[in-house]
Amino acid sequence: MGNGVKHLLDFQGWTVEAIEGILETADVMKEVLERPVKKVPALQGITVCTAFFENSTRTRTSFELAARRMSADVLTFAAGASSLSKGESLRDTIETLNAYKVDAFIVRHHASGAAHQVARFSGKSTINAGDGRRAHPTQALLDAYTMLKEFGKLEGLKVTIIGDILHSRVARSNAELLSLMGAQVTLCGPATLLPRELARDNVKVTTDIQEAVTGADVVMALRLQQERMNGGFLPSMSEYALTYQVNESLLERAKDHAIVLHPGPMNRDLEISGSLADSARSRIIAQVEYGQAVRMSVLYHLLVGKK
Amino acid sequence: MLEIKNVKRVGSDQLESLFIAEGKIKGWNLSEAATETIDGKGATVAPALIELHAHLREPGQEQKEDLASGLAAAAAGGYGTVVSMPNTSPVVDEPGIVATLIQKAEKLGFARLKPAAALTRGQKGETLADLAALKEAGASMFTDDGRTNENANVLRRGMEYASGLGLLVSVHAEDATLRQDGVMNEGVVSHELGLPGNPAAAEAARVARDVEIALLTGARLHIQHLSTARALEIVRQGKKAGAPVTCEVCPHHLTLTDESLRGFDAMYKVAPPLRTQQDAEALLEGLLDGTVDCLATDHAPHTQAEKEKDLLEAPFGIPSIEVAFPLMYTRFVKTGKISLEKVLDLFTVGCAKVMNWETPSLEAGSVADVVLLDLDQARAVDPKTFKSKAKFSPWAGEELYGWPTLTLVAGKVAFQN
């Protein structure tokens, strides 16, 4: 980045201008993706390693395609759950991959902070593709980009995020990014999944879903992870659906132009009604499409000029 | 006869000579001829420190630490006596293991080892270990440290039985069902970082239960590594109510907070976790008002590779036995928050009282466990020079005063710099 930022780990230390730069370049990348030949030479000679310590298909595919469309070489590393139990430290794994002369790491890991560790151990540009509950910054950027395309601005937008806030890196990154960009964020969910400590300027925390959605421009449903049932966080799936499902009747409280987002993968008719996900309000497919342009833009901003 | 000349007593600038013979303090400024002389070069002399809570990892985890490295590290930290924790592999729950550890340590000639043994077989918290046989073999106290005693009745019976033997039970007081998979203090920082939190209530709830058991049984109970203001307040109230409870606090809980985790460095992952600034301040208050009986390090060495794992996978623990005194001296004595006499008491007399051991002293006739402390020269913490196998430290690079220059155990040099 022009301001010296080398990594995208979360939005700590990022400026509004730097983020605006990424979102503006995403427009250019979006245009590239609409051409018959969807490829530019911007990252020729650069090797990007997708180091995925946690299963992911969509995010990895999106990043790899984004890198390839900018002519980067891509080294794919996917650690199964078994390799973690073999005892190799994260540092050893990263140093091994680093020995292949990698220029940048795109990291997904089940532990919060792992992307920071990779940045430290590798000394290379590192993009956090989701670490534990901590951050998923490119998801937040593509969400912000989707809002920008819809409303032309982020400042003043009322964005409500509903679901398992406690375990959600998407919620944390969106709250960080959107509040920085001047949007009003409301985090909503059952009290067991809602850390009140996340409240701050521009970020409100509430268990009252009706209040949370009232007047919202954007309503985002989060995926409910089935394993949360075992932790005693929720009495049952059906009770969750009854009280916290994002559906058409709930959306009546939002603004007329309100759109619905979901970071995927969806549990249809659990956290979001299937009909709403398929409705004209839904921008869920647009999110996926924009995601690639946003990731190309991130790679461009972090890596061009590194050769 | 050994003469240690040019040393200062605490609170005095006068250079004096301490005489030692046959493992005991012979007296001060004697006219008798010494066969050996050590120049203390103006250092302050004190009874050697006592450690009630160190993980020396032997048997079974010698890649992290062993008796030789751990006891050498203790001596370098100014300690003359170390109580080692029994959560080794195998667990120290057999008399033979206790006896072997003591024999090995005696040959090494560093700090004196007083092993703690497990309260329950395998530290499983189910059935009591053979406590009398363990005591006979040399066990100094009983604890399932590293594990929490979930079954209150087993703890009750263990305390009753141990008190009949004249020994103490100490506990790692955390409610595991509340702690869950927490890797750091639950609060603003853990929620911002998205790391699983361990609430202060997990400690307070367990301390409350254990204080009640001490009141019920009348048996002495020692609570390890208190980390929260609430738990400390419960101990304070318990003591007022007559509960025979003592407690220890660790230097890392006094000098670091959960803010340290913001860099996602597993070096700061410790159990119980680093808490808030308010907790650290309350613990300091507890030292000053006497609620806290002693300082203990919970020295917990690990390999570098283990600590370079991610925050969820990396083990809990900070190695600190070599820096404990300089850290406490620099952060709290030099800044006027606590007196040198008080800190030394918490490292020596307070520990001995918890264990019902002879009061450490530099008076004639006392065991010659002695440390010389250089209170005037600062030196940066350099983990590479640690005697411990764990070569990392949260305080690396920090300039500290109060480094030990000489440690004697029963009149013999265990460490000299």
Concise overview:
Chain A has 307 residues and is an alpha/beta fold.
Model description:
The complex is a heterodimer of chains A (307) and B (417). In chain A, 39% of the residues lie in helices and 15% in strands. Chain A contains twelve helices and nine strands. In chain A, the strands form two sheets. A five-stranded parallel sheet of chain A has the order 7-6-5-8-9. A four-stranded parallel sheet of chain A has the order 2-1-3-4, sandwiched between helices. In chain A, helix 4 crosses helix 5 and helix 6 crosses helix 7. Helix content of chain B is 31%, strand content 20%. In chain B, the strands form five sheets. In chain B, strands 1, 2, 3, 4, 5, 17, 20 and 21 form an eight-stranded mixed sheet that branches. In chain B, strands 9-10-11-14-15-16 form a six-stranded parallel sheet. The longest helix of chain B is centred in the middle third of the chain and has 18 residues. Classes of the chains: A alpha/beta (307), B alpha/beta (417).
Question: Top keywords for this entry?
Answer:
heterodimer, A: 39% helix, globular, B: 417 residues, alpha/beta, 8-stranded mixed beta sheet, 21 strands
